[in-house]
Specification:
The structure is a single chain. The protein has about 200 residues and is mainly alpha-helical. Helices cover about 95% and strands about 0% of the residues. The chain contains 3 helices and no strands. The two termini are about 30 Å apart. About 5% of the residues are buried.
């Protein structure tokens, strides 16, 4: 919008210069007007170049921000999956503990009520040992999952720091683009002031 207004002011200045040139009777004034028009054309080309640079910087900053957001979302999804897996292992551990306690109670009941049935008691003890092994295996699996989750969290934190750095870089690029736009506007205002001064001298 600033560039468009600058172009409008530039066109108005050019029209005013053309009118002044038509009114001028001396060749010297006409030559000065032609030089001023050439200078205005140069400023217009410079303004077009600055506007193209601003557009390129804006598009680059926008793409960097979108890429950083996609990476952050993927890291969060992966972390959520690991947390769900850990919760499942904790639930499995609880079930194994409950089964082990039930088998222990059954073994105690068999020892109290059927002391002479040693084979059945040994079978119950074997079942208890198997449940204990399953319980221990579940604990080991939980420990491995916790280690993987901790490692993934550290990796996610590193990725988040990198994403914050990317976002900061995008912000710096956007700030640089704003500065370029401010310089372009300053050039346009200077050009307009120069034309108005020349018009005042001519009139």
């Amino acid at each position: 919008e600033q560039a468009r207004r600058s172009m409008d002011r530039l066109q108005t200045a050019q029209e005013s210069l053309e009118e002044a040139r038509r009114k001028a009777e001396s060749q010297e004034v006409a030559a000065e007007l032609a030089a001023e028009q050439q200078r205005a054309a140069g400023l217009e080309e410079q303004l077009d170049g600055l506007r193209a640079d601003l557009q390129a910087h804006a598009e680059e900053s926008e793409e960097s921000a979108r890429s950083a957001a996609r990476k952050l979302e993927a890291a969060q999804d992966e972390t959520s999956g690991l947390e769900l897996r850990a919760a499942g292992l904790v639930a499995a551990e609880g079930e194994a503990q409950a089964r082990w306690e039930a088998e222990e109670q059954q073994a105690c009941a068999l020892r109290r009520d059927c002391g002479d049935l040693r084979d059945q008691v040994e079978a119950a003890q074997e079942c208890q040992a198997r449940e204990r092994r399953e319980f221990e295996a579940t604990q080991q699996a939980e420990a491995r999952c916790a280690s993987e989750l901790d490692q993934q969290r550290r990796q996610t934190e590193d990725e988040c720091r990198q994403l914050r750095d990317d976002i900061a870089s995008a912000a710096r690029a956007e700030s640089a683009a704003s500065k370029e736009q401010a310089r372009a506007e300053q050039h346009a205002r200077q050009a307009e002031a120069d034309r108005e001064r020349l018009m005042g001298q001519l009139l």
